[in-house]
Design goal:
This protein is mainly alpha-helical. 71% of the residues lie in helices and 4% in strands. The protein has helices at residues 8-28, 40-47, 51-63, 82-100, 108-127, 132-148, 153-177, 180-195, 199-220, and strands at 67-70, 74-77. The N and C termini lie far apart (63 Å). The mean pLDDT is 87.
Length: 226
């Protein structure tokens, strides 16, 4: 005998996903700034859903690093901290630098993944109608593809975790600075150096790119060293 409510969970899950997606869009587009309280009752009324649905959606955002939950304060849009930004960028250099230095030893599938993710990012930039969320996702996917050149699934998993921490900060910088076109050109230049076999040049280019990204994030968000 089939369960009479067998589809309930799927419908709820779909609603939760839609709520989470709309909140992500609002965060990446700057409608919800860092530190904004995400109050269940107000969000439920605004979106026309139940509070439990909003609560589950907020749990997804907290897990992704886009929001933080604190005792007695509820959930807020995450606020990047200077020390964390510097630490993440330093870790990115270790992982992405290792991938760049292995370009010549990597197999063709790994190199093609770098080319494919670069094309997806630059195409979104030049198309002109991509959301900040889409640009952010494609931008960071390209950087993870560099780590893929190491051939290590564990290092790629580590890079994926770093991306979660960096998504909000980079999204806000791209929105504030509106510099996605410049970033696309930088990434194209990096891959051109790799294709030429100039590994030392590509490595130095990436190192400076990550240093610049770190300072851009800190400056654009008005962060200060404690």
């Amino acid at each position: 005998m089939s369960a009479p409510f067998g589809t309930l969970h799927l419908e709820l899950s779909s609603t939760v996903d839609r709520v989470a997606q709309e909140l992500r869009r609002a965060i990446f587009d700057g409608e919800l700034e860092s530190g904004t309280p995400l109050r269940e009752m107000a969000l439920a009324a605004s979106l026309g859903v139940s509070r439990p649905t909003v609560r589950e959606a907020l749990t997804l955002l907290v897990a992704e690093g886009l929001a933080t939950r604190e005792p007695n304060r509820g959930v807020h849009v995450a606020t990047p901290e200077t020390a964390s930004v510097r630490d993440v960028c330093a870790a990115r250099w270790v992982l992405e630098g290792a991938g760049v230095r292995r370009w010549l030893e990597a197999d063709e599938e790994q190199r093609e993944q770098v080319r494919t993710t670069l094309d997806a990012y630059t195409s979104a930039v030049h198309r002109g109608d991509a959301t900040y969320q889409e640009l952010n996702e494609r931008h960071l996917t390209f950087h993870v593809s560099l780590v893929g050149l190491t051939g290590s699934p564990r290092l790629v998993a580590m890079a994926d975790n770093l991306v979660v921490e960096l998504k909000l900060a980079l999204a806000q910088v791209e929105r504030i600075r509106r510099n996605a076109h410049d970033e696309a050109d930088n990434h194209t230049a990096l891959v051109a150096l790799l294709e030429q076999g100039d590994i030392p040049g590509a490595s130095e280019f990436l190192r400076q790119h990550l240093i610049d990204a770190e300072e851009d994030i800190i400056d654009a968000l008005g962060l200060t060293d404690a």
